[in-house]
Every structure is written in C-alpha cells, then in structure tokens.
Write a structure and sequence with these properties.
Helices cover 43% and strands 5% of the residues. By secondary structure, the chain is mainly alpha-helical. The chain has three domains: 55 residues, no CATH class; 157 residues, no CATH class; 46 residues, no CATH class. Strand 5 and strand 6 form a beta hairpin.
Length: 351
C-alpha cells in the first residue's frame, strides 16, 4: 500500500517538531495523530513507537508533503542544549506550535512579541527588540542558545534585585509591561555578550592574572551595564561573574599543567577563546578592557585627536596589566595617541 498525503495540507512552521505538526495536521483533517498512526501500523506502513523514529518522521513528511529537511532541527549546538518551546503565536496564525530554533532568542522581531509564558506585545519597549537583534547577530551565530550557561548566568546577573526594583517599577509604569524578564532582557543580553567575549575571557580567565586586577576589570564592565543607584546591587552580579572566572582560571591552570586543551563542559565558555567574532559598530563602546577604550587598547580621543588624561592613564594601566611592567617602558608614547585619520603619502609608480 502506497502512503498518500492527507486531503488538506498544513504548513509546517520553521523549526516545528513532529509532535506539534502531527497534532495540527491531524486536526486540520478532522482526526487525531494517534488515530492516523494506528491506521498506518495496521497497514504495515509504520512499525516503531518512538517519537523520533525515522519511519515516523518519513511518514508524516509524506502525509504533509513536506521537505525532507522538516523535523531536523538540532537538539545540541556547540555543546549547548536547544529545548523545544512555544513558537510565536502570530507566526503560527493563532495556533499553538512547538519547535526548536537555535538562533532565536526570546523575542519575535517580526511581530515584536515576547516569547515567554504568556506571550506579550513589545511594541512599546524597543530596547527588547534591539537586544534580540544583538543576540542573533552575536550570540546566536556563535551557538549560544537560550538554555546555555551563558544565558542562564546572564539572566541571574540581570535579576530585578540586582538591577534595582526602582528601575523595574519605572519601566513597568512607562511601558505597561509587567513581565520582569522581558523588561530586563537588554541587560541579560549585555551580560551574555560580556562573558562570551573573546578579549574579555582571554584576560579575566588567565590563571596568571592578579585577582585584584581581575576584580577591578569585572567591576568596571558591570558598572557599564548596571549603574550604581540606591536600589541596585551591581556587586552581586560582579561576584557571580568572578566565581565563574575563578573556576575557568582553575581549569586553564590544570590544563596547562597536564598539557591538554582546557575543557569546561559545565560552563562551555572557554571555546569562545578560539573564535574571532566580526567587529560591529556597537562594540566600540563595549571593549573588553573597559569603557574609554574603543578597539582593544586604543584610547578614546577628543576633538583635537589626543587622548584625554584620564583615558590615557587608564590605557597605561591596562597595557601594564596585560603586557607587564617591563614591556610598558618600551612602548612609544605615540601608541597612546589617536588621530582622526592617518596621513598617507602617495608613492610614485616606477616606469
């Protein structure tokens, strides 16, 4: 007996899993998934009972006339789990659809909806949309999923008690959104990008770095995300990040002693040391060595082109911290001075 598609076709959404599609496709054809699969077994067209059995996947692809890549969303990306969750209700046209999309954060940019429970409208809160775009451009492309340690740690650092209940109440009054996770999503993405940034991890997880210097660098980065106010407690986020960095430094020290590559399966952060993300315009104010340094160790310049005294002093301290005291004395003074555009002398082509 040849398996033919069901009379009424059902569109499969991006990343939708087989359980969600089989339920919707069966209801559209006035039946249930269990009844259809039972009929297939009676006609020897389906043998297994596993939810992810290859025969079951192939049968529902034929029943829905779907592409062979349907139901192939990965369950693991770069060591990070991709869990099945509810897709955007607007994208699913009001139907309840479940699936896995690794590079999707917590916001549907197309319909500006928060993909939590319940799903809410975010038209009145543009920072969440901007944060989602940054997640997809930086974190999602590097395999940082919503279920990864980086995102869970960032969510803990961006909790209402740390950011400050006064700030949360202010955002609730301005936007009318009561979901605290949606309101603090921008801070969560900033923390996730911080602890996965290659330049930041290379310095702060180095076992040879002085603990006081590591703490000062983390405190500077946290202060740039959560300003010090009467209700905020940024020191709690700083301590969370420091605890993780101490563990990563111990892992790197042990790997160096044994002579093997460092492995952190519980954190999955050291893999970012081997990646070099593409530079972006918003990274100019989020350099790994702290505010005031635009590209690594290039100090911020004023209108005349020379570095401001406080910025120059911060750059000197960071250069001494990274390269050592002896190396700093050999660095020319011009390295700590920026100009608007380098002058180039055209060369004559030899005839």
């Amino acid at each position: 007996m040849k398996l033919e598609p069901l009379p009424l076709r059902t569109r499969a959404h991006r990343g939708e899993d087989i359980d969600s599609y089989s339920r919707r496709h069966a209801i559209r054809n006035f039946s249930t998934a269990a009844h259809i699969e039972s009929a297939l077994r009676r006609h020897s067209l389906l043998s297994g009972y596993s939810r992810v059995d290859s025969d079951r996947l192939a049968a529902w692809r034929k029943l829905g006339e779907l592409h062979e890549k349907a139901f192939t969303a990965p369950e693991m990306v770069h060591g990070n789990t991709v869990e099945t969750r509810a897709l955007c209700a607007r994208c699913a046209r009001g139907e309840r659809a479940m699936g896995r999309i690794p590079e999707l954060g917590m916001v549907c940019v197309r319909h500006r909806r928060w993909l939590g429970s319940p799903q809410i409208d975010l038209h009145g809160y543009p920072p969440a949309i901007v944060a989602e775009r940054r997640y997809r451009a930086h974190l999602g492309l590097n395999g940082v999923t919503n279920e990864s340690f980086a995102m869970r740690c960032a969510q803990g650092c961006a909790s209402p008690g740390i950011v400050g209940w006064a700030e949360v109440r202010r955002r609730q009054a301005e936007t009318g959104i009561q979901d605290e996770s949606a309101l603090l999503y921008p801070e969560q993405i900033k923390f996730a990008r911080l602890i996965t940034r290659r330049s930041f991890l290379a310095v702060t997880s180095d076992p040879d770095v002085d603990p006081d210097a590591r703490q000062a660098l983390v405190a500077r980065e946290v202060a740039a995300i959560i300003p010090e106010t009467e209700s905020s407690e940024p020191w709690r986020a700083q301590q969370r990040i420091l605890d993780v960095l101490h563990q990563l430094a111990a892992i790197r020290r042990k790997a160096r002693y044994i002579g093997t590559p460092p492995d952190d399966p519980d954190y999955n952060l050291l893999r970012h040391l081997a990646t070099t993300p593409e530079p972006s315009p918003d990274d100019q104010t989020e350099a790994a060595v702290g505010p005031g340094l635009s590209n690594g160790f290039e100090p911020e310049a004023d209108q005349q082109g020379s570095a401001r005294p406080e910025v120059r002093e911060a750059a000197q301290e960071q250069l001494q911290f990274v390269f050592g005291e002896d190396t700093l004395t050999s660095i020319p003074r011009g390295m700590l001075t920026t100009v608007d555009a380098p002058s180039r002398t055209p060369t004559r082509r030899r005839s």
